[in-house]
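Human:
I keep going back and forth on a fold encoding question. Comparing notes only helps if you start from a blank page. Show me how you would write down a chain together with its backbone fold. Write it directly below this note and I will take it from there.

Assistant:
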Amino acid sequence: MRRLNCRRSGTIAPHAVASRACSALFCLLACSTVCADDLVEFLTGAKVHGTIKEIRKTEKEFDLELTIGDKTVVRTYPFSSVHAVTMKSKRYVLNKLPSQVAGPSKRVERTREEVLELIDTVGRTPPDWFNSTRLSVPATLDLTWPNAPEKVWENGKYPGQYVWDVINPNRAKWREGIKLLHHIVAVNKDNRGAQVKAMNQLGTLYASLLEDWPRAAFWWRQAGKGTQGGMGVGGFRVGYEVGLAKCYWKLGNKEMAVETLSRTNGSPYLWCEMGEHDRALKQAEQFRKGWMGDGALIVGGDVCRHAGWYDKALHYYERAAALPENDKYKRVVYNAKERIAAMKAERAVDLSQLADGTYKGRSLGYSGMIDVAVAVQDNRISSVKVTKHVEKQYYSSLTDISNQIIGKQSVRGIDATASATITAEAIVRASAKALGRMGR
């Protein structure tokens, strides 16, 4: 057997990555036996178990046999999409990961072709945990995904309600829920409506819970073939294109994200995340003239705060706080007053003056109040924990925002737009109130 010309479990000098990658896969072809459980690690971080069947040197691609449920399929992958291959318990690094090339502080950028290839390559494969996750199909669940009658909530019957009530709040069931949605897509071959709903939900769960952007984009693109609708990223009930725009941005192509988001009345918060604050504020003003009315003053304030325009943000919040506290604007007024208090608390935070201990704060999230406990040790923030909440969506923000605050050692400059904005903003505000000693 020919010896593989590649470093085991190591890294490759940048100038030699491409040639070493090809050499390694060429040499794999010389193996006399095929391993029954090969592992392919993609540059996206995704991992796929299967059996490498054939490697084509001229085309620079290989075939991988996969088991999906009770079916066996063969997928073709280009060498350029692979980070490492494990065969016979030996791991061979073929291409450096983007983070290793660009460094941790530099945003990884990809061409349109690279993004589309990544989405197609990873999206068509199941995650590495898929086969080991049990398929749980509640007997009462209607897999044809009918629309629930107005004011009817039966989470044991309607899949959308089941995902909201049972899957989202329970981290242990996330993978189970995704596998169930894949099953619903498979059993509704002649029911495009049910497939679209399940595909939209797959996009949402892969993005908001697992931050698996290639698979999220793949399923939103599948749902979008001739149909629009569903839940986009960030909590806005808009077209699937907002979710796609988020994925394109996360996968490294701003041009695709801008192009896609421009086709919608999308999310000011996503414009913020991409650094397009003028566009974000223009969108907020459009919302104010349209469906949101003066409730969009909050959005305008959030955009300005994210841009660092604090005086302008305060002006928006004060106008919102002055609205009549009727049924229409009661929550808007509350949120505005809370944001004003949080901004004052942010300015009052001085870690050098805080004694060691745990400080508590509370703020209103999407579904109710969110309590946090911020621990300070040696004049540094050592932990930020969400101690109580009733949120049922976008759980990644519960840890992402906490990690950002610890990393920055501040409650200012936190990018709450990258997660579920309403929940994430609440965690930032509660932490600010805690450290500003404004309490609960």
Notes: Residues 278-345 form one domain.
